[in-house]
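Q: I'm writing a short explainer about ABC transporter permease for a general audience and would like to include a description of its predicted shape. Could you first generate the structure from this sequence?
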Amino acid sequence: MNKYWIVTSQVYRKNLKSGSWLSLVLSPLILLAIVIGIGWYVSQSDQPAQVAVVTDNPAIAQTLKKANDADIHYQSLSAAQAKRKLKHESITGILTIKTEPDISAKYVELANAETSADLSKMRAALTSLKTSQAASRLKLTSAQLQALTTPAQVQKKTVAIENGKQVAKSNSASAANYAFATGLTIFIMLIITVYGQMLAQEIATEKGSRIMEILLSSVSATTQFFAKLTAILLLLVTQLAIYVIAGGLSWTWLKQQSFVEDILPAVDLSVFWSTTSLMAILFFIIGTMTFAVLAALLGSLVANQEQVNTAVMPISLLALAGYFLSLMAQAGDSMLIKVFSYIPFINVELMPVRLALQHTTLLAAGISLVIAVIFLIVFTFIVVKVYQTNVLVYSEAGIIKAIRQSFRIWQAEWKK
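A: Of course. Here's the predicted structure. Afterward I'll give you a sentence or two in plain language.
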């Protein structure tokens, strides 16, 4: 057991200091910091458009001023005052309103204005004034006018089918689930690809430098195999712990910012601490371990470090297959998607996305998870045997022939 932890510690510390692992950990944090910084800067510098209202009807100007909000501020000015302020670039634009025969307007805006006025809001305010003018001419009461202008009400209700029954869901949960599924797909694909290549590189480097022969004289191949898997898993746990700590520290500041406070009420974040998240984490762990075992197998088949990129191609292909199928699942739940969500290697990416999008049930996800766990156990047993017989085989004949050679050696030892 002591040798096991020595190997685990050596592999862990070696990769912990490597530039590839540090860039993998820091790149998402730097990118997220840039995005948050841009959002904060925009929210701090975003000022309402200052619009001068020029009209022969003071009541209209007063009505528009009452419609001031965070996007547009109206101020009543004479034509001369408005032109003077526009010339000095102290206002965004000039809204000239005519009331006869009907309300009509012309808006002139500076091309280099810091903030552009929202024309849709401006048009809505003028439309309301024009409607009031028409109602006055037709001698409609305020109640009649309200009845005519009140839009039709359409209530939206989001449901999911669970165990053959409709279950009500929050309308905002759909957007949160979609964002969660998209982020989860990309994250799983990147992690299994990078960590798989890292483990394969580790084994191939030892084989290529013939250090493996020295190591096997004191530590068994099985001990080395599981120690390296443990080290890779500890690296993953370290990365996730860094993200959790960084996220917790950032959230204490973010939740107090205005650009976040405006978004939060409209977003349902319950998906992030629900059963769906728990299942996603389990699939993520099992998937990472399964691809790590595959990487160990492929790394043991190469003769030197130069063959690693070719050897790990199956990892990239399987990861991309799961990624593209996950994207297809976001467009619709076809029979192809349903079948592949139970196939090992693919299901660890696909099933969490289907669950997040509420395209499947927890029972179905549980069945897929059990299949993934059983496959991991059986696959690990087979790979350990191949690893033991092939870790000292230096074949330059290629990956396929190396697999055949390993299988013949394993078969001969099995008969003994």
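A: For your explainer, you could say: The mean pLDDT is 76.
Q: Perfect, that's easy to follow.
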